[in-house]
Design brief:
eight-stranded mixed beta sheet, alpha/beta, 327 residues, 17% strand, Spore Coat Polysaccharide Biosynthesis Protein SpsA, Chain A
C-alpha cells in the first residue's frame, strides 16, 4: 500500500435544517481547525428544506470564502438523504460529516487524519461522554444493543455519523442503490479497514434539537428493518409456540372433561385474556410485516432520494492557488 499523503484534501458535510443561528459559529470553529491542518478543504452545507434564513446566512458566508459550497433541497427529505447528497458532491480525498450544532467537536479532526494516514479507510468517533438526558442515553444504548443482537452486521455503540471516510468508502456508499438509508449501518456493512477515536460530546449550545422522539423511533425501526429479518423470524417462532400451547391446552381441557365426566372448568376471564393477548400479537405482526412491505414498496417505485433546488460549489484549491478566503 502506497503511503497516504500528508496533506489530503478534506470535505466537510454539514446537513442543515433551520440552522441560521448555528452556521456562522460552526463555520468559524470548523474553519479554524481546518486551517491548522494545512490541508486544502471545503465545507459543503446541505440545506434540508429549511424554513428560516439558513440558506441566506450561508450564502453570505460563501461570498466571503470560496471554499464553502451549498447543496439545497426542494423540501425536507431528512438527514439520511442530506448525507447522501453530500457524499454525491464532495471532492476531497477524505470526507467528514458533522452536525451544525458543534456537538461533533472540530478538534477531533486532526485525530481522524492521524488514523487515516496510518492506513485506516474509516475512522469513527465514539462518544466517551455525552451531555444529554438520561432518557436519551438509555434509549440510544437499548437501540444499539438490540440492533446488534438482531443483525449480522456489528454497529459500534456510541458511534454516529461523525467520522472520517476515505474516498473509497464514499464511492462504496454511492454504489448502494437503496433509498431508505440507515448510514450508521451502511458504514459497517461496507467493511473497509476501520478504527475509532474517543471524544466527549458536549451539549448543544445553539438552537434546538431537531430530532423528535417520533423521528428517533422511526430511525431506530429503519435500522432494524434495514439490516435484520429477525423480527419476522421471531413472529414465526412465536406463532409456532402459540399453536403448540393451544394444542396442549386443548388436550388438557379434553382430559378434564373425560376424567371428570363432563365437568367444564370456569374460565371466561382467562379465555378473554388469551383472546386479547393473541389478537394483539396478530396486530403487531401485521404492523411489522407492513413496515417491511412499505420499504419494498418505496424501493420498487424507484423515486429519487431527493430533488435539488440549487448546487453552488467551487473546486477544492491547494494552498498555492489564489482564492477568496474570508475572515
Amino acid at each position: 500500500m502506497s503511503p497516504r499523503p500528508a496533506f489530503p484534501s478534506i470535505s466537510i458535510i454539514v446537513p442543515a435544517h433551520n440552522e441560521e443561528a448555528a452556521l456562522p459559529v460552526a463555520y468559524q470553529e470548523i474553519r479554524a481547525e481546518l486551517e491548522r491542518t494545512g490541508c486544502p478543504w471545503e465545507i459543503l452545507v446541505v440545506d434540508d428544506g429549511s424554513r428560516d434564513r439558513t440558506v441566506e446566512v450561508w450564502r453570505g458566508l460563501m461570498a466571503q470564502d470560496s471554499r464553502l459550497g451549498l447543496v439545497s433541497f426542494t423540501r425536507n427529505y431528512g438527514k439520511e438523504n442530506a448525507l447522501l447528497a453530500g457524499f454525491a458532491h464532495v471532492q476531497g480525498d477524505v470526507t467528514i460529516p458533522m452536525d451544525a450544532d458543534l456537538q461533533d467537536p472540530p478538534a477531533v479532526i486532526p485525530l481522524f487524519l492521524e488514523r487515516w494516514r496510518a492506513g485506516f479507510d474509516m475512522v469513527y468517533g465514539v462518544r466517551r461522554h455525552r451531555e444529554e438526558s438520561a432518557f436519551k442515553k438509555l434509549t440510544a444504548t437499548v437501540h444499539y444493543r438490540l440492533l446488534n443482537a438482531l443483525s449480522p452486521i456489528h454497529i459500534p455503540e456510541e458511534a454516529g455519523d461523525f467520522r472520517l471516510l476515505d474516498r473509497l468508502v464514499v464511492q462504496d456508499l454511492l454504489r448502494l442503490p437503496e433509498r431508505d438509508r440507515y448510514h450508521k449501518g451502511l458504514y459497517a456493512w461496507v467493511g473497509r479497514k476501520s478504527t475509532h477515536v474517543l471524544y466527549d460530546r458536549p451539549a448543544r449550545v445553539i438552537g434546538e434539537a431537531r430530532q423528535s422522539f417520533r423521528k428517533l423511533l422511526t430511525l431506530a425501526l429503519d435500522g432494524i428493518t434495514s439490516f435484520s429479518a429477525a423480527p419476522l423470524q421471531f413472529l414465526l417462532w412465536l406463532g409456532i409456540a402459540s399453536c403448540g400451547f393451544a394444542v396442549l391446552y386443548g388436550f388438557y381441557l379434553a382430559s378434564q372433561v373425560f376424567i371428570l365426566h363432563g365437568y367444564t372448568p370456569a374460565g371466561y376471564p382467562t379465555l378473554l385474556c388469551f383472546i386479547l393477548f393473541f389478537g394483539g400479537i396478530q396486530m403487531v405482526a401485521l404492523g411489522l410485516i407492513g413496515e417491511y412491505l412499505a420499504r419494498i414498496y418505496r424501493e420498487v417505485k424507484q423515486r429519487p432520494a431527493y430533488l435539488l433546488a440549487e448546487v453552488v460549489q467551487n473546486p477544492i484549491r491547494t494552498s498555492g492557488e489564489k482564492s477568496n478566503h474570508g475572515v
